[in-house]
Amino acid sequence: MKTLVCFGDSLTARYEGKDNPRLTEELSSQLPTYNVVNAGVSGHTTKDALRRIEKDVLTIHPDLVTVLFGSNDVASHKKVTLKTYKENILEITHLIGPEKTILISPPPVDEAMQPNRKNKELARYADAVRDVAKETGSHYIDFFTDLYSRPNYEELLVGILNDGLHFGGSGYDILSTLILSKIQEIDSKGARQHD
Predict the structure, then answer these.
(1) Mean pLDDT, consecutive 10-residue segments, the chain of 195 residues?
(2) Which candidate, 69, 34, 77, places its Cα nearest to that of 52?
(3) Residue numbers of the domain that contains 111
(4) How many independent structural domains does the chain possess?
(5) Domain with 62 in it: what CATH number?
(6) Which of 55, 178, 181, 183 is the residue whose CA sits 20 to 30 A from 143?
(7) What is the CA radius of gyration of the chain?
């Protein structure tokens, strides 16, 4: 059995009407060969992530880790500068190991409901995640562009809270599909290398 840790903030942690965190529940049902562990904590930034990565991620010795932070780093009331955010993502990647890290860019928000967060800025934070993935050779999912490029993206951001940030089932379906296809790609590459 392999281990996948989902490391992140409330977007990783939220139950969204399910008995378990929505993201890990969706992934577990599709990944029978993986034990999926949720290491999401609401409200966390990459600074918080570094404080708890040892206990919540590294001690588990995971095979793969999804890393999804940025929605709080970008928020005006919790602000982590773009430079520090990039450095933190880089450090997180080095601690986990680039070959095990799946970096995910933070999703857009519905600005009408999220005065503390701007998509223009989230796009810059998403670019920083992409740059770190390129620099380190880690895996990358451009969740920001995938959602933002859809004409109905605001509708996809409607969840139980309906706050323009915490998406519901549709958003989780998209996110889990992106993660699943990335893991299949990683696993099939690994299988080819062992042939």
Answers:
(1) 97 95 96 97 98 98 98 96 98 98 98 96 98 98 97 94 95 97 92 71
(2) 69
(3) 2-194
(4) 1
(5) 3.40.50.1110
(6) 55
(7) 16
